[in-house]
Design goal:
Strand order of the largest sheet: 2-1-4-3
Number of strands: 4
Distance between the termini: 97 Å
Order of helices and strands: HHEEHHHHHHHEEHHHH
Largest sheet: 4 strands, mixed
Structural class: mainly alpha
Number of helices: 13
Length: 365
């Protein structure tokens, strides 16, 4: 896009150059053809040539100034230290660069070499904008033999100095960018450690519910830390956009959190199914009609089992409910409808069974 704009501006320069050269030629022709008084000496040809060279030099100076100004503006935007005036907002970024997490490494797109290549191309395009602006007094030469103003401009010491500075401009920010990327190394354990291996080691310590809660809180705190990372981070002329790398970090954190949540869920579901199955088996014994001694013995056994469990069954239910409360706090979408219904009905089913046992016991007395 910059090269297209420069090409468009270069065409205007060529057009204006032809106009000015033609105007000077008209001026010189008017001067030479003017009828002077016989007593006045004719204008020497040296003065005519000198006047032509003066305007020729002035055109060169105008092109040189424009080229210097453009390159210096690039230099200020890319290499400048920024304005000390707060109203100016400091140095504005010249490039927007996305930061990605790829295979455990933070990468930039475009990369620093690509950014430097763009700067080089832009600087070259500015300098070469005068390559087709022909120097004067060459109309008698073939088109391909005419020399442009570019030949003079490219040899200017200040131009050469700015070009050299621009071609190495990103090198000055490279170390700062590397330092910025190192800031993400504190998250490296997320992809360097194996989740299953870490979880196995965690389970070997026979974790309690509080240990799971501490882990899930740790993951949430880590996610909050990622959220605190600025969306943009400016280093010199670069505006580093962190949205992509933040998304990748959040995905890794979510993988760990999901794996630990599912492990806790597996334990909670196993305990829930065991308790529901136990209630179901006792329920079948109570519901069995008393028709003989054997069936009476079965009911009596079930009633005695309920009596013994009544004191500690609530202690068995409580950890299951606490597990599910923790899961609902940190990992909402983890249960299907049947499991959710069983969880909600666990206390009711047990209390209903106890009440039914009291009725059966009273009837038998």
């Amino acid at each position: 896009m910059q090269e297209d704009w420069i090409e468009s501006a270069s065409k205007k320069l060529r057009s204006k150059n032809y106009e000015v050269e033609g105007a000077v030629e008209d001026l010189l022709q008017t001067i030479c053809s003017y009828q002077l008084d016989p007593t006045v000496h004719p204008i020497p040809m040296e003065d005519i040539i000198r006047l032509s060279k003066y305007y020729n030099w002035s055109m060169y100076q105008a092109l040189l100034h424009a080229t210097k100004f453009s390159l210096n503006q690039m230099k200020e935007r890319i290499c400048g230290r920024g304005s000390t005036n707060k109203k100016d907002g400091g140095l504005k970024p010249f490039f927007e660069v996305d930061v990605f997490l790829v295979d455990g490494e933070t990468t930039l797109k475009p990369s620093l070499p690509e950014v430097q290549r763009s700067i080089n191309q832009a600087a070259s395009a500015v300098l070469k904008s005068t390559k087709k602006v022909q120097n004067w007094n060459q109309k008698d030469l073939p088109e391909d033999e005419r020399k442009p103003f570019y030949t003079w401009i490219a040899r200017d010491k200040e131009i050469v100095k700015v070009i050299l500075l621009l071609t190495g401009s990103i090198q000055g920010t490279r170390n700062k960018v590397i330092q910025f990327q190192k800031g993400f190394e504190k998250f490296a354990w997320l992809w360097n450690r194996q989740i299953d291996t870490d979880l196995k080691k965690f389970n070997e310590s026979k974790p309690q519910l509080e240990d799971y809660e501490a882990k899930l809180k740790e993951f949430d705190a880590l996610a909050a830390e990622v959220d605190e990372i600025d969306a943009f981070h400016q280093i010199g002329a670069l505006s580093l956009k962190n949205e992509k790398v933040k998304e990748s970090l959040k995905e890794w954190i979510e993988k760990w959190k999901t794996r630990y949540s599912k492990d806790l869920h597996k334990k909670a579901r196993t305990m829930l199914e065991s308790l529901m199955d136990e209630i179901k088996q006792i329920q079948l014994k109570i519901d069995k009609p008393v028709v003989d001694i054997d069936s009476l013995g079965s009911v009596m056994t079930a009633l005695e089992e309920i009596r013994k469990k009544q004191s500690d069954f609530s202690h068995q239910i409580r950890p299951v409910n606490e597990m599910y409360r923790l899961l609902e706090t940190y990992f909402v979408e983890i249960m299907d409808k049947d499991e959710s219904d069983n969880k909600d009905q666990l206390d009711k089913r047990w209390m209903g069974l106890v009440q039914q046992a009291d009725v059966v016991r009273n009837e038998m007395h």
